[in-house]
Amino acid sequence: MYAVVFYSQRGMSELVNSGRYDTHDNFTVVIQPFFRNVFLPVLEDGRPDHLTFFSVDCFHFSERGHAEMAIALWNNMLEPVGSKQNYNNFTYDRSKIHCPTKEHPFIFTQINSVSGADCPTDTIPAWAAAVLAVGGLIIGWIITWIIFYYRERKNRKRNKTTEMNGTKF
């Protein structure tokens, strides 16, 4: 069973690290390896405390298990590729939640994890997006109005000629 897991993880890593998903500015795939090595806490008698973190079917996560996985995933996304934590120790400690820093206020990807890569410097001001959105709406309304105006004008012209044709003696 471990061989199947190992080879599937290795195949996934090779696929993601091939660069196939790093060709666009707006999409990427990053492996979050926090679940690669899992350490379950043990009970006082030495048995693993699996019922605290897993449901009674021992496969699905419990509420506490979901919380632990969410914390681990969040922390993993805030770590550079190549330096990601590949284990989770299920401590249910809220103080272990990481926050973005001023130096790196973003989720790390393969591209921005490269040494020397920092926050993008060519950012668009927030007001520019609002101005473009409002401008686009106004232009859309004008074009729509012009289309309907000329369509109505054409219909009126057609109705006027039909009306005059009906008045002949």
Automatic annotation (TrEMBL):
BP term (GO), one: phospholipid metabolic process
Keyword annotations from UniProtKB, A to Z: Membrane, Transmembrane, Transmembrane helix
GO terms under cellular component: brush border membrane
InterPro entries given in the database record: PLB1
Domain of life: Eukaryota
UniProt GO molecular function: phosphatidylcholine lysophospholipase activity; phospholipase A2 activity; retinyl-palmitate esterase activity
Residues that span the membrane, as ranges: 127-150
Claim: Transmembrane is one of the keywords in the record: yes
Protein name: Si:ch211-214p16.3
